Amino acid sequence: MPLARPSVRSLGASRIRELMNAGLGRADVLPFWVGEPDEPTPGFIRQAGMDAIAAGDVFYTHNLGIPELREALARYVSRLHRPVDAERIAVTSAGVNALMLVSQLLLDPGDRVVEVVPLWPNLQEIPRILGAHVETVPLSFARSGWTLDTDRLIEALAPGTRALYLNSPNNPTGWTVTREDQAAILAHCRRHCIWIFADDAYERLYFDGGVAPSFLDLAEDGDRVVSTNTFSKSWLMTGWRLGWVVVPASLTADLGKLIEYNTSCAPVFVQRAGVVAVEQGEPVIARTVERFRAARDFLVAGLNATPGIEAALPRGAMYAFFRVDGVDDSLAFCKRLVAGAGLGLAPGSAFGPHGEGFVRWCFASGLERLGDGLERLRRGMHLR
């Protein structure tokens, strides 16, 4: 019987997708299981995409992206962090595509990589798809917040490690690395020639003011640091599938080859919408952050007022990752919530073994809808 290669067969199927399939066809289910804002892309961004289609911008373009978008992104990144030239930026077909491309660029089968977990499952599986060996360092949970044992992480980043994958602000916990920890991690990785793959998808969804700490704030020319990002979260563009990556200039040409052999290029009309988002979208981000902050505060307070639940206040991203007393099979628990309470949440086990016993709730939603969800959760707690 024909089979896929072993590293693909060994991949775990998405438990979030399994849960969503269990709720298919049920109009009464209130879904908070995927990481997606509840509002559509702002009209001025949609209009830019439609105008580009009307103008006939529907052909192939440069592998690395149209110059207008690369230059706009260079100005954007330079304003948030340190100066970055457009030659260091490549446009990709979504943030997850950026992560796969840089992994293809720098990982060989058998390479050892380290990840901080719990973690978005796509990011856990990408290095495994490429045959790398993944080791994990877990965050610690307390009602006061998720924390990283930086000494433990640095110990795990032993000589010979190829790369560190770090998603901050983190999906699913909202944990955000501190500037001090970033400096210590970067110094260690410099000494041992370890690459840092920074997934910065949520850097603008940060509730402590400004932009979340980024390795781009600290990295110097020649540092082994790549930063991937996406238009999905900051500008409410999940369905557009547009992202970018910042790499050392020495990697750009080879990255262009991989884009050619993966997707050739991101669609031009999508990139035109991206230009408008970057250049005119700051009010969108400001409104979104304040809206999500109110949603976060409302939801976490409601969760902590529910017997049997403990939740920490996330510093960034758009999720509450909360512990449920007595739950040792979060997938089964979430299936019961779907069946018995009409509530769709993501099981913590979807984010690796260290997520078991927890549940993720995407709070990118209005307060009334979140309140309805809390009532359903409280009813569902009695289904165990």
Helix content: 25-40%
Number of domains: 2
Q: Find the count of extended strands (DSSP E, 2+ residues).
A: 13
Number of helices: 13
Beta-strand fraction estimate = 5-15%
CATH topology of the largest domain: Aspartate Aminotransferase, domain 2
Q: Which overall shape is indicated by the principal axes computed on the Cα atoms?
A: globular
**CATH superfamily label of the largest domain:** Type I PLP-dependent aspartate aminotransferase-like (Major domain)
Please give the order of strands in the largest beta sheet.
Answer: 2-8-7-6-5-3-4
Structural class determined from secondary elements: alpha/beta
What's the alpha carbon Rg, rounded to whole Å?
21 Å
CATH hierarchy class name of the largest domain: Alpha Beta
Q: How far is the first residue's CA from the last residue's CA?
A: 41 Å
Order of helices and strands: HHEHHEHEHEHEHEEEHHHEEHEEEH
| Mean of all residue-level pLDDT scores | 96
The main sheet comes to: 7 strands, mixed
In CATH, the architecture of the largest domain is 3-Layer(aba) Sandwich
Q: What are the segments in which pLDDT stays under 50 over at least 5 consecutive residues?
A: none
Features:
384 residues, 40% helix, 13 helices, 13 strands, single chain, 4-stranded antiparallel beta sheet, Aspartate Aminotransferase, domain 2, alpha/beta, 2 domains, Aspartate Aminotransferase, domain 1
Structure explained in plain terms:
This protein is an alpha/beta fold. The model has no long low-confidence stretch (mean pLDDT 96). Helix 6 links the parallel strand 3 and strand 4 (133-138). The chain has 13 helices and 13 strands. It has helices at residues 6-9, 15-22, 43-54, 67-80, 95-106, 121-129, 150-156, 179-192, 252-262, 268-280, 282-304, 330-341, 367-380; strands at residues 30-31, 89-92, 112-117, 133-138, 163-167, 195-199, 225-230, 243-246, 309-310, 319-324, 343-344, 346-347, 358-362.
